[in-house]
Amino acid sequence: EAPGATRFNDGKCDPAGRFFAGTLDLEFRRPLGALYCVDSDLAGRRMVTDVCISNGLAWSPGGTRMYFADSVARRVDCFEYDVRCGSVGGRRSFADTSSLPGMPDGATVSVDGRYWLAMYDGACVLAIAPDGRIVERVELPVARPTCCTFGGDRLDTLYVTCAAAAP
Asked: Hey, how many other C-beta atoms are within 10 angstroms of the C-beta on 21?
């Protein structure tokens, strides 16, 4: 990391309760950021490097996959994930959003395994099947959705946060 050139951005706990948090380049163009994991003993580990804007953290229902997006790259990657020790491996491209308006921001995974991705400046949330196909697009009345999650008694209500429009 470059002191003074980065800040923390997206953070979320894995299925075992470890806290993951990613950083971003304050100029939004250089790969100075990283993704970190803080274990229960408060020891920190760098998990992913060369990131411009860390976003899109989520885990599959079984905890065997970790999803991670670099907003500037406009791509979501998928890692093999070992929930017992919190390790990642087998990184591969999961979904390319470069042809769509907006950029990947926060995300969640539904109980059926779909990855739900807020598209900042894209006015929508995308539902992406476990094989990487975009299977649904939820249009929103706001330009800058930032994250989404499911709630309600049956976890079937999609909640979306958003950022204010630029002045």
From this structure: 18
